[in-house]
Amino acid sequence: MLEKALDGGRGYWAWVCTLLALIGLGFVAYLHQFNNGLTVTGLSRDVPWGFYIAQFTFLVGVAASAVVLVLPYYLHDFKAFGKLVVLGEFLAISAVIMCMLFIFVDMGQPMRVVNVILFPTPHSLMFWDMTVLCGYLVLNVLISRVTFRAEIQELPPRPWIRPIIILSVPWAVSIHTVTAFLYSGLAARPFWESAVLAPRFLASAFSAGPAILIMLALLLARITAFDVGDKALHRLSTIMLYAMLANLFFVAMEFFTVFYSSIPEHTHHFRYLFSGLEGAHRLVPWMWFSLILGIGCAIGLLVPRLRHQRSSLAFLSAGIVLAIWIDKGLGMVVGGFVPSPLGAVTEYWPTLPEVGISTGIYAIGALILTGLYKIALSERAVI
Predict the structure, then answer these.
(1) What are the pLDDT tens digits along the chain (383 aa)?
(2) Omega into 304 within 30° of 0, i.e. cis?
(3) Is 97 left (phi over 0), alpha (psi -120 to 50) or beta?
(4) Do 52 and 358 form a contact (C-beta atoms < 8 A)?
(5) What superfamily in CATH does domain 42-350 come from?
(6) Which of 61, 263, 322, 324 has the fewest other C-beta atoms within 10 Å?
């Protein structure tokens, strides 16, 4: 089936060549970082995590969101997701691969990644995060391969795959839960010491993931003959809405708890993000934009006419993705490091090499996803 990804028209190859060019630029930027170290990034002693970990956190949620399709389709026999579920599984595969690549570039030297494998430390949350991510990648590759082959052959999936599908549901929840534990387990960072951090991560994941999938489905319907159907889009948009409302509720809980208790060590992080601290206010407009955009898109999704109209649904889905990408990315990561435990305010902003490397990694994910979608659509003879 792999040969299907090498067959396409002029527009398809123009897109592939564009992605390859971005990958090449990203690789050049990575060689610059490899030769000069992480000093070429905006990271510092006070802010050791930045743009790379922000993308990792966001993409883990995108990967985990495949469960919102797997659970209704395989366990509750919701047939409307039939055309959509394989797209979600392929999205999860590309998202997990990008997660691993962002960890790879964040560690600076490749041997540091190898050391995690050669010298496993079960008491380290990073070790368990790598374990669950690798396991989730294997599960999605296996499930998508078996079920897709069965669909092409017009046969029911093999019985032994069902327990693996059931296993993938709690596994999907675990990959983002462990990621949240990476944050909340750091006792010196009050911003992340919250019992609702893991539920908030899951709620944002189950909103951003479906939003990306909706945009991909609408794009495929526009450029090919493949259409997942209005019923699937309506149900997925409803899931996205409820998850976004839950995410906003968790954010409101955080604001109330922090500012009502008025514990300085907790309020300083929120003040830095939303009003600035000691003259440092680089993220303030971004955080307000994210909050207002998220609330506005949630209100828009509450209107059935806007939620069911494809053009407005695409716009609202894009807004949801952007709002969560800002809040869960730079806001969540940098906000936990500013100020430092000693009260130092050191601002962070991604440098050009970081942006270039990140763009290259996203291009790798897009290339993988393009190939997988091309195979799926070619086998279904809808291109």
Answers:
(1) 666 666 778 888 999 999 999 999 999 999 999 999 999 999 999 999 999 999 999 999 999 988 888 888 888 888 888 888 889 999 999 999 999 999 999 988 777 777 777 777 777 767 777 888 889 999 989 988 888 887 777 777 788 888 998 998 899 998 889 889 888 888 778 899 888 999 999 999 999 999 999 999 999 999 888 888 899 999 999 999 999 999 999 999 999 999 888 888 889 999 999 998 888 899 999 999 999 999 999 999 999 999 999 999 999 999 999 999 999 888 999 999 999 888 889 999 999 999 999 999 999 999 999 999 998 887 765 55
(2) no
(3) alpha
(4) yes
(5) Formate dehydrogenase/DMSO reductase domain (1.20.1630.10)
(6) 263
Distance from C-alpha of 311 to C-alpha of 66, rounded to nearest angstrom: 23
Alpha helices (runs of H) in the chain, residue ranges in sequence order: 10-36, 51-64, 67-70, 82-106, 110-118, 125-152, 161-184, 197-223, 230-261, 264-274, 284-302, 304-308, 310-326, 332-337, 352-379
Exposed, middle or buried: residue 99 (CB in 10 Å: 0-12, 13-18, 19+)? buried
What are the residues whose beta carbons fall under 8 Å from the beta carbon of 263, sequence distance 6 or more? 190
Amino acid at 76: H
| Nearest alpha-carbon partner for 255 in 243, 267, 264 | 267
**Residue 240 · residue 317 · CB < 8 Å:** yes
Alpha-carbon gap, residue 98 to 59, rounded angstroms: 7
Orientation of helix 310-326 relative to helix 197-223, angle to 10°: 140
What does the domain layout of the chain look like in residue ranges? 42-350
Predicted TM-score of the model (pTM): 0.93
Angle between helices 110-118 and 125-152 (to 10 degrees): 90
Of 310, 375, 354, 363, nearest to 51 by C-alpha is 354
